[in-house]
Amino acid sequence: MSDLAELTSPIDNAIVRLENITKRFPGVVANRGVHLRVMAGTFHALIGENGAGKSTLLNILYGRYRPDAGRIFVRDEEITEALESPADAIRRGIGLVSQHYALIPALSVLENIVLGAEPTFPGGALRLGPAAERIAALSEQLGLGDLDLKARADTLSVAAGQKVEILKALYRGAQILLLDEPTATLAPQEAESLFALLHRLVAGGTTVVFVTHKLREVMAHSDRVSVLRAGRNVGDFNTRETNERDLLRRMIGTRGHVPLDIDRTLTGELVVAAPQAPTGPTDSPTPTPVFVPRPPSGSPLLQVEGVTVRNARRAIAVRNASLEVGMGEIVGVAGVDGSGQRELAEAIVGLRRLEAGRVFLAGIELTRMSVRQRQEFGVAYIPEDRQRDGLVLDFSVAENYLLGHETKKSWGGGWLLDPQRMLARAVQMVERYDVRIGFTGVETPAGMLSGGNQQKIIIARALASSLRLLVASQPTRGLDVAASQFVYETLRQARARGLGVLLFSLDLDEIFQLADRIAVMFNGKVVGVVPRAQATPEQIGALMTGATWQQTGEKGKGNQGEMPPGAGPGALP
Amino acid sequence: MRARMLESGGFWRALFSVLAGLLLAALLMKASGYDVGAALSALWSGATGIAPGPSRGPNQIPIGIGAWKAHLDKFVLAQSLARATPLIWAGLSVALALRGGLFNIGAQGQLIVGALAAAVVGMLGKGSEAGGDVTGGWPPWLHVPLTLLTGAAAGAVWGAIPGWLKARRGVHEVLSTILLNYIAADIASYLVTHGLKDPNSHSMAPQTGLMAASAWLTPAVPGSNLTVGLLLAVTAAALVAFLLQRTALGYEIRAVGLGQAAAEATGIPAVRTLVVTMGLAGALAGLAGAVEVMGVHHRYVPGVAATYGFDGIAVALLGGLTGSGTVASGLFFGLLASGASGMQRSTDVPDAITVIVQAVVILVIGVRYLRKRALPPLVAAVLDTDERREEDADRI
Known about the structure:
The complex is a heterodimer. Chain A is α/β, with parallel strands linked by helices. Chain A has helices at 4-8, 54-61, 86-91, 109-114, 129-141, 158-171, 188-203, 215-221, 244-252, 262-266, 341-349, 371-376, 386-390, 397-402, 419-433, 451-463, 481-496, 508-514, 537-544, and strands at residues 14-25, 28-39, 43-47, 69-74, 77-78, 94-97, 176-180, 207-212, 224-229, 232-238, 302-310, 316-325, 329-334, 354-361, 364-365, 379-382, 469-473, 500-504, 517-522, 525-531. In chain A, 30% of the residues lie in helices and 22% in strands. Chain A is globular and about 65 Å long. Chain B has a two-stranded antiparallel ribbon. At the A-B interface, α2, α12 and α13 of A face α1, α10, α11 and α17 of B.
């Protein structure tokens, strides 16, 4: 903030300069007078919580949104008026790799890359030959030589898809590369490989602007960092001259409603300081035990036996997977994206038919039960894609809260709905969970809420039923620090209440923070189940990418009867 | 954000689409050299039965209740309302299905099946005729509801088939309902020329025998086609609105319509809901057919369905997929069609004006629904850029 005067000076070596950018959406001001300067050839991180306005700022720079006020300069040329669409941005050397990647599944990598600037013969027929050569050379030069240009985009992993998008931006001549939370869905090794690529680009003169809320990435990789909070730029720093603690303070500000133990958050220890449990018995004064593996008491709550599941494209996604979850235990399921976690979670909650295998809850076989029947036996689900599977975005908050409970009298459901009771319950839930819903109250469409508030509704709905097993799939994906803390706290409280929790996550940190035992999936198989205390992130990371337990250098350590038959050491093809 | 669109801009968009359609029709008349004033005047009196008052010159519309009464031709108005009746039924069918996320192009076929089934049941229970007196026939209080129910049931079955195909086999309902329309029409024309052909008919006319009078709906205005069927349609509209807003089933229908994945993941039985939605939609279309044969033709004749099933799409869209909106837009289109026929008779202007207005309505209103709900994902994605941006904006 101290360099505000500097910001407004017309002459500097910034390749991108945003001045006083303000952008309003109905009911929300996403950016309020944001100043931002990005130096040419630097790795510039943009951090902030969800809703801080990071994505909006990127989208303004990419020509998707027009600012309501403010000016945009690129290479000291004002383009505020000229920037009407992404095409204008691309023409000025700006490329965006968005959060949800934007490749066309049925086209090849090559076709995806040229899309938007397809080279043609006179007359309009596609002329891919020279483009293919150029792209092959470009990817070779960037160390992406193993990328198969003929592969269909839908066969790529998320990480590979992202690289294709970067390649696409560069092919279109991008010198300023914007990335919107690119590591949100990557395994640690994949993220490292992405950063290696980005560093090569920066070394070659490309400017990288990188949105994230992972402080460690910022500290490890960026040259400069700007912090956004509530739509404002609250500080620009040289990364070397700042630290995580300071950045986190600025990100979170002085908001009182979520007590944060910053030091412990930073060291990876977790916060147990939330004063009031939002659900469940709160009279117990003992804090939830953290990092103490609780051995399952008696027979396991959930037993998954030799389960095989197909994915939406009818390919086998989970092969002969076995797992157990005890009461009062969190079992984390780790694995790189697409290893079958989603399908396994869906099979357990009843959304996917089993090709083989059986599922038991407290000794009762669930295998053939519908989702609703399983719910009645105490299975609740926090889905991975909350906007698709968790909420009806056009429904109001109150209507969403009723989802799945619409036949219950006490919820205001039943053959005839009882709107009064339904609204009252929703209002109660909103207050208890501190859901930020704006002035239209529980009638606000759920699609208008931020990700954290959406997730609160889903969690509240899941926990409000009588519950024995909570299946949580990527419960903090896309959430900011405060909202993630809320989710962690909820899962810990569920454990303290004696529930079984099955946590599917791509974020190894999350798994290490929460899980009592860690199951690792690779290529549709459960390749290991180890107590957290006996595992290191490196070992788990190695298992996630297909190494055997021996190859992780910890011979025999995890081989203590935890491995399911046939999936233990040396069982991989 | 469809829900919000309905609340905020729905009415104005509807009004705009209608005015734009009428304006375009007027411009086309002008360009073709017709007297637009006379044509519109004829359209008005043909639709409402309110004749231009002689003392005020030919093109003036009377003002004041007394003036209205004096110049009101009840028969014309009744015919207009009768014309609206099947449109409201069919509109409700399309609207209910679309609220459940299904694009029912098959109201036409469901209507035909309903009409045919109603005609068959209507031919039963005639009793024996002796010296002008009918004895042993079914009483109307039994025969009328039974015939209506049969029509509804037949339509429900015809509707449930594509619902089931969609839920279980993933067959897109647009495809299956269109195909079922042909099947329904062909089955009907086979039956009326073979098994169900009127034995008393001396002509070659393919039609069923006459229904028993106990299954007829009596005209509200003597000689007109207006019957209690209109009242039933309005009641049905209220019931549909109640179903959707105040019952668990209706809630489930809307949940599946707006977010099938979320509905399934929270335990709503999507398969059952899809089948029930299409079954109910089919029943409403089937009732359109039943009311038509019971009130107008008193037998099944090919063409009884006209294009009501397809017109229902425009009716539902203009009505914003609500019960009351569908009644209003059904009345509008009914009056428009009736007025256009009158206009064609008296001024020679072709009644294609109704088609023009319908087309504009579908273009202006429909595209907003269709691109999201009923088109293949790729086409929807192409059409959807604008709205997606809006939704992005909502979440920042």
